[in-house]
Amino acid sequence: MTAGKGQGFGFGLGKMRELADAFKKAQQVQEGAKLLQEELERMEIQGESGGGLVKVIVSGNQEPKRVEISPEAIAQGPELLSDLVTAAMKDAYNQSTATMRERMEELTSGLELPGL
Predict the structure, then answer these.
(1) Which residues pair with 64 in a beta bridge?
(2) Each residue of 78-93: pLDDT tens digit?
(3) Which helix (H) or strand (E) holds 62?
């Protein structure tokens, strides 16, 4: 028996085009991911607590940048100040994680790899 025209090993020309397109999209996503990583490193995302008494600033990929503590927060005493800093850190982390997730979803939207 001979294989039908264009069937080859069960991987027709149409599938080759789909695969080539998928590789092209994957390469674009990879390039976009590199640019996104650079953007996230430059970002400053602020978390806060106590109505702004304590602010924690991190990059888009959660690297700590700085902490701003108001005199009013210091006057609250060490225990409350510790709680305020912790809450501001959590807020900054959550915002940074959400930003990263949103940007990655934007980057990979529409990426469909055939057969995977």
Answers:
(1) 58
(2) 999 999 999 999 999 9
(3) none
Question: Is the alpha carbon torsion for 90, 95, 100, 101 positive or negative?
Answer: positive
Q: What angle do CA 36, 41, 45 make, to 5 degrees?
A: 105
Write down the pTM of the prediction.
0.71
Given a contact cutoff of 8 angstroms between Cβ atoms, the answer to whether 54 and 48 are in contact is: yes
Residues present in the chain in total: 116
Closest by CA position to 55, among listed 85, 23, 93, 33: 85
Q: Number of C-alpha atoms within 13 angstroms, CB side, residue 100?
A: 20
Question: Cα–Cα distance between 1 and 109 in angstroms, integer?
Answer: 44
CA geometry: angle at 101 spanning 22 and 115, to 5°? 25
Comparing CA positions, the residue from 56, 35, 53, 34 lying closest to residue 44 is: 56
**Residue 16 CB-density burial (10 A; 0-12 exposed, 13-18 middle, 19+ buried):** exposed
Instruction: Tokens for 4, please give them.
Output: 């039908």
Q: What is the CA radius of gyration of the chain?
A: 24
Kindly state the tokens that stand for 97.
């994680």
